[in-house]
Predict the 3D structure of the following.
Amino acid sequence: MTSAPLTSAPEIISSLLDLTAWTVFDVDPEGRILAGNDESGSMQLVEITPDGSRTQLTALPSRCSGRYVPGTRGVVVQHDNGGDEQMQLSLLEITPGAAPAGAGDLTPLVHDPAYKHDLADVSAGSVVFLTNRRDGVDFDVVVHDLATGTQTTLYDGGGYLVDAVASHDRRSVAITVLSSRPRSTQILVAGTGTAAGPAAVTGTVTAADEHAHHTHVSWTAGDDALVMASDHEREHAAVVRVRSGADTAGGAGGTTWETLVEAADHDLEVVLSPDGSAMVVGHHQDGVTTLAVHEPDGTHRSDVTLPDTGVPTVVWAPDSSRFAVHLTTSGDPGSIHLVDATTGTATTLVDGRAQIPDGLPVALPTVHRVPTPDGEQIPCFVYRPATTDTPVAGASVVLVHGGPEGEATRLFSPVIQALAGAGFTVLVPNVRGSAGYGKRWVSLDDVDKRLDSVADLAALRAWLPDLGLDPERSALWGGSYGGYMVLAGTTMQPDLWAAGVDIVGMSSLVTFLENTSEYRRAAREREYGSLEHHRDLLVAASPITYLDQLRAPLFVIHGANDPRVPLSEAEQIAAALADRGIRHELRVYHDEGHGLAKRANRKDAYPAAIAFLTEILGR
């Protein structure tokens, strides 16, 4: 029997925040899926069998992730302490009937709480991880032998490493490192070298100073080339095969690029199968991605049939016969499907839609382009409330994503749904500087263009009457870079915004760069500008510079263990608001880092923030 609709805003918000989130980490040869869900309150490991049965594997105090150890019933677990992102690696042996493993039930593998150890690759005999333990700043690539415990450093060239994937013969790793230019990466290969002969990829694969973004790097079957998604010499990312010539000793000048799959007007993503016999290609357009299976030469094999279009994550099974897809859509908090790699047919193992109460309203977005005074068009998703019979009818919240090189996608967000459930119209823009719309758009906020992105907020506010909304009753909401945008909008455009919710945002780009974790500073300076060369620009782009203009009430949320945006950023904005007598609330969570990973904290913070906005913007 269908339940009655939920009409109370607190009731709707509570139901949304109680929904379980899922993700997928790995698949084993028997088709078992190593997944994660936060039913217990934070993201923990869960194993799903092909028949859909589930077993919770961990019960750690903080969120975790993991990978299977091939040929065993072991799992390498990656975990931190209270959101501090100082990842540690441990082993878990899956035992039938055992209770979920707590911290004391794991076998330490790589532990030193002073440093990061990011899991990159796992084989039957070894684990590859990225660590800054040499000096706390620069990252190395290390291989840990599971039998002997011996550790071998394959790369110690420094920099901020994003990923490393081992070749099939385990002699080399392909490393993705952030380069010095914004929204750019460089691909390197390090190790003992392959036995593939003169065609083997070695050394520097892509140029250090190129403005290009390379992702999803994998080795071809013979370890003689790399497959990746890249916008090398193009506006949108394509699927390419990259090979370095032996006559240049791996130098970038001898690199050859072969386009396997491309699209003229949108970005592509790729996940190559373990044996190189197939690849899943994603076509990413306006915040959603459709999937297809292709042959290794790029020839189309089959489309992937999923229940809806949204944001998928793909993980291949070891034998390349199938792959798992975690899919979240505007109306689905997260489902898990197992897909046949030949036909593209999907079997649903977890249906995230089934947990949504019948009476819970779900807002679905419409897609828009918002004009700016300088002739640009801001992509924007608009979520309308299910009912207009609320105190905040006609009011709106502009929710800005983090990054800044991030992207707002059309996935299920409990926060967006909660705001819509409370009666707000929610605008979710991809302001200039956002990913997902080509190289030009993502570059429009670099360094001295930072305030051009902030100006997009004013354009969004000016567009509100086109939606029938009251521009005098609009607030900003955002986390991380989105939190910075909340503070920038309310200080630099004081007449435009009635209130703001700042979650782990930067109040000063100067103090943020001075106090962020040392290993992150150079990576962030490439986007915002450096303390040494661009201090005046950083001051000019800092919200705290314009505090004398601030009038809007602010609700501020921060994790005490945040390694990215230090708690001091929230504390100094709250102190300044207190000194000026401006209404505000600061909530600090001492078991959280960069955002709220625990349901109990989300259920404390978000309803209070929505109530704060409802009181201020209610008619």
In short: Confidence is low (pLDDT under 50) at residues 193-201, 246-252. The chain has three domains: 21-159, 160-262, 365-617.
